[in-house]
Amino acid sequence: MLNKKTIENVLYAALSTGGDFAEIFVEDKYTTNMKMIGGILEDSISGRDYGVGIRIFNGFNSIYAYTNDSTEENLIKVAKEAALAINLDKKNIVLNLMKNDVKNNNKIITLPRSVEKAKKIEIMKNGYLSAKNYDEVISQVTVSYLDEEQNVLIANSEGLMAEDKRVRTRMAIQSVATKSGEMQIGFSAPGASMGFEFYENIDIEEHGREASRIAKTMIDAELCPSGKMPVVIHNGFGGVLFHEACGHGLEATSVAKNTSVFSNKLNEKVASSVVTAIDDGTIPNEWGTTNIDDEGTPTRKNLLIENGILKGYLVDKLNGRRMDYEPTGSSRRQSYKLPPTSRMNNTYIANGKSTFEEIISNTESGLFAKKLGGGSVNPATGDFNFAVMEGYLIENGKITKPVRGATLIGNGTEVLDKIDMVGNNLKLAQGMCGSVSGLVPVNVGQPTIRVKNLTVGGRKGDE
Questions:
Q1: What class, spelled out in words, does domain 4-219 have in CATH?
Q2: Which end of the chain has fewer CB atoms surrounding its CB within 10 Å, N or C?
Q3: Could you name the Gene Ontology cellular component terms for this entry (predicted)?
């Protein structure tokens, strides 16, 4: 990493043309990615990425530059070139960098890069075999492995200097079931902000069987009917609907520009009174947890919606200026090559009072969306379309036969208002979220919820 004197000299150079804030982000990242298809290791890439990002503020505007040459001479040159975008009177600034104490939310026991590659491949093989041997209908299994160690140093002209180590481990198993020319996919992808000890805490073979179970269940399922109906969305990955259709609208990236449906609605009712939503970057060892965000602000638990009332946004430093709002520890980026902005960490709908059994038994008929797949969302309007990876009909208050080809179609704010039952079985699930600052690891989550009326797209009657 960089020494204190070099950091100070670069910050002075960045402010040499009158900027009012400057920041350095140093990243040293080790990554291993492997992919196994059909039980054969097809790809294996390990590498190190090192670089420095320099950001300068001038009021509500910012300039960003980056380089992988971290010599002091080059960093000063890059900082001065970036600063040319500002042409104001130079301010008298005295830097006093003080190293911040960082609370550790993620205990790491075994760094993944200390583990032999053969051991990692062995675990992948176990996951593959459990998925492939589940049933003869499983035609293909793909296993992806990831581990990364990201060391960062963040310093700015306000005197902040902080360091953090982020270690993450994940394995994704995708099973394909084939029957009569039709294919269905099942997926399971556990991950955590943990070292290699992660694999002592999970049963990767069970995740392989789960991926294949979903694929087999759906290949034998009937086509889903379409229409408006009550929809029960299960816990865990069901939270992707809130994340995509509502969570992005609570990020200052869109709120500050008034392009979000939630702009200027603090303390207003935006959801059913049974809905409370939270983003928490401090949950120990969770996939979306860090100790500090990518501006050096400690992560925290942010209350977004409380009993249907909008209570807060996710805010980074620049958009906080625009909104006159305190940063919330939510500024994130994929790498030093991108400037940070407000992003989610571990975002979820909080537990309610209903049991899973009560929600199902109180639903006369409808759809049980046990696991959601991919989808698309218009962040300006909240309109969404999500595929259901695993779905079942609810008939006479009971879950009955599986159905395939279902999609959920609606609007995020309207769905929030139509949630009339919230379970007490909160579960989180891992994913990758894309936005203007790149891909970042996030958790989505919720207990089982019921939306009293939602449009379901289905293919029944098409054939």
A1: alpha beta
A2: C
A3: cytosol
